[in-house]
């Protein structure tokens, strides 16, 4: 049968044609529907690890990276995404979750977050249930499950570490750590003025709910390794929030690292920073799960080669953190 990517790029440019020729490296999404809380179902897209040369050891299950989209009432999708192929070509399975409240599955599904003021509850339950579903099916290694998210997706990511023990590691990109600050900011933003009232609760009557669901308020309850990637000029998810959460995780004795990009705001734009963020995340998971990633500019340092410039930069950013086994966690 014709490979999915050949159908997509049937009228491809030379660059796309070159990608099709290397389709053995590319993982196609599989729609996944799985049971979640309250007897309901949630959705996502599963990308299995794919590589033409390398494969896991006999009987070994791949690690899983769960992705939580931002918004929160938007959705993920199956458009071509190098940030997902980055992981699948390196041995990770990826579950890109469209938690309840996401668009694209009908009105009833889309309204679940707003009708139940469920942001920080339903989305968290769904990313956890999705990971557990794949582990129960024997598709992934339950002891090597991690999660990442950016902006509102980072809020879900960190809330999952607070409310469950499903994930052993996480990467938070410019996470909105304080919902009370966000609600105050939105008061002057006409388009989103009452957005959080439906997602979280009426303001200021239910201010306590905002505090309770803010990761910065409960970060001491996290019992997982966390990498924070932050923009220095971010006015929404401020550097102070990231620093406070990083310090709390460190004080609690868990592996953590904070990387701040001086030339980024809310949403990373520069190619070099995006690439470094992914490489740092991979190296971070390697430290936690006990594997050594290979970077393209490194030439076998164990046999007389040298670390390349990017690996040196990644190591300098992450290396100082203690690994899990040093604390017996």
Shape: globular
Biggest pleated-sheet summary: 8 strands, mixed
Contiguous runs where pLDDT drops below 50 for at least 5 residues: 1-12, 324-329
Order of helices and strands: HHEEEHEHHHEHEHHHHEHEHHH
Give the percentage of residues in beta strands.
5-15%
Q: Give helix % range.
A: 25-40%
Contiguous helical run count: 15
Mean pLDDT: 88
What Rg do the Cα atoms give?
20 Å
Number of strands: 8
Write a compact overview of the structure shown.
The chain is an alpha/beta fold and 329 residues long.
Describe this protein's structure.
This protein has helices at residues 4-8, 14-20, 82-88, 107-110, 112-115, 122-136, 152-163, 179-186, 195-199, 207-213, 215-218, 239-251, 271-289, 309-318, 324-327; strands at residues 30-35, 41-47, 64-68, 93-98, 145-150, 169-173, 225-231, 256-261. Helix 6 (122-136) crosses helix 7 and helix 13 (271-289) packs across helix 14. 42% of the residues are buried. The chain is of the alpha/beta class. An eight-stranded mixed beta sheet has the order 1-2-4-3-5-6-7-8, sandwiched between helices.
């Amino acid at each position: 049968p014709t490979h999915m990517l050949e159908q997509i790029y049937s009228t491809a440019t030379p660059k796309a044609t070159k990608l099709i020729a290397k389709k053995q490296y590319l993982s196609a999404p599989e729609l996944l529907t799985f049971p979640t809380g309250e007897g309901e179902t949630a959705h996502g897209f599963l990308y299995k690890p794919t590589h033409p040369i390398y494969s896991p050891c006999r009987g070994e299950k791949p690690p899983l990276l769960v992705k939580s989209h931002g918004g929160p009432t938007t959705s993920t999708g199956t458009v071509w995404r190098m940030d997902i192929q980055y992981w699948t070509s390196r041995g990770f399975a990826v579950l890109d979750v469209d938690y309840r409240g996401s668009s694209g599955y009908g009105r009833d599904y889309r309204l679940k977050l707003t009708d139940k003021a469920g942001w920080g509850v339903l989305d968290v339950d769904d990313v956890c249930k999705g990971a557990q579903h794949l582990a129960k099916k024997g598709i992934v290694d339950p002891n090597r499950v991690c999660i990442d998210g950016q902006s509102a997706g980072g809020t879900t990511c960190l809330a999952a570490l607070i409310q469950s023990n499903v994930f052993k590691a996480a990467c938070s990109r410019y996470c909105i750590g304080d919902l009370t600050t966000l609600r105050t900011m939105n008061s002057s933003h006409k388009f989103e003025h009452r957005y959080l009232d439906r997602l979280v609760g009426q303001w200021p009557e239910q201010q306590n709910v905002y505090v309770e669901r803010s990761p910065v308020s409960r970060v001491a309850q996290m019992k997982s390794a966390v990498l924070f990637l932050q923009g220095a000029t971010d006015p929404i998810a401020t550097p102070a929030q990231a620093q406070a959460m990083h310090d709390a995780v460190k004080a609690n004795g868990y592996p953590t690292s904070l990387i701040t990009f001086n030339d980024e705001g809310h949403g990373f734009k520069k190619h070099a920073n995006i690439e470094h963020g992914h490489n740092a995340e991979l190296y971070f998971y390697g430290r936690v799960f006990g594997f050594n990633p290979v970077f393209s500019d490194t030439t076998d340092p164990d046999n007389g080669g040298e670390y390349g410039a990017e690996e040196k930069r990644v190591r300098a950013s992450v290396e100082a953190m203690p690994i899990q086994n040093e604390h017996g966690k």
